[in-house]
Design goal:
By secondary structure, this protein is an alpha+beta fold. The chain has 10 helices and 11 strands. The model has no long low-confidence stretch (mean pLDDT 87).
Amino acid sequence: MEAILEHLPKQQEESFVVKSFDYRYFPTPWHYHPEFELVLVTSSTGKRYIGDQISDFAPGNLALIGPNLPHTYHNDEQYYHRSSRLRARSIVVHFLERSLGADFLSLPESEPLRNLFAHAARGLEIRGKTNRAVTERMKALVNINGLARWLKLVEILHILAETAEYSFISRMPVSGQNEKEDGRMAKVMDYVLKHFATEIRVNDVARQLNMADNSFSRYFSQRTRKTFMSFVNEVRLNHACKLLIENKLSVAQICFECGFNNLSNFNKHFKERYRETPLTYRKQYILYAQKSM
């Protein structure tokens, strides 16, 4: 996918950037940058787009995103209401390989780091005890400076390089370097996120980009390796999983809440993607939650 080039400027005395953000909602569009990004969500919920994958995020979500891997975090609808008192908070670390020193990664002891950085090209979801250990250290990073801060970053990267508590996010590396198409995919995603619960047609989105229907369909599939409607259904099914886990609505209510026009169609798409029915998915989650208590 194409995306907007953005990065966080660092101060003259810094080799990398640490920021603690506090917004009404996360404002960053679909974007990429040459730096590695370690991002910890400390408050708010929503949907996360990294590379070619969509998933939910919530407080505690921790990801390592490689250079030029397009991504965005889009909060749930209630965060955009004018009367909302909700906050979207995160801690973000941006660094380059050279932030560690000119020859640091060429050292034989740095092989685990080289492997970590190679894996980050697809984005890494950090889980379990590793998540908790890195979270603690990222919170400390915000309040320290100088050599102590650099050493803390190296400590974090060492923990990540030695752990197996991670999973790949994107199915394949995706490069965002194409400034010619800046903003187009951001418009598509914003439109889908705002309208997925209602009927969406290709020509509705094509019109947003001043493109003919066929041109838009070809444009989208070439850049995402999926059809536009399969992407819309992916967003809908992802939202359905969240509602199933919350266990507040019936399966039929969730079907229409997510933009499917009938229950049979919803069940068909859900089973194709998750290899089980929505009801089974809910029961399995409840069983897992009870065992984890």
